[in-house]
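My main concern about presentation is that the manuscript never shows what a single data entry looks like. The format is easy to grasp once an entry is in front of the reader. For illustration, here is how one protein appears when written out as sequence plus structure tokens:
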Amino acid sequence: MNEFSFKHNISPLYIPKTADEMKALRYFKRTFKSRLLKD
């Protein structure tokens, strides 16, 4: 699954149900943003 579809899957409508999902979501957003800034 490519980055765009992954980003699309965790749109603002996505609601994390566990603390682990919250952590994963936050981590993903941070890495995705830094990757966008690098390019």
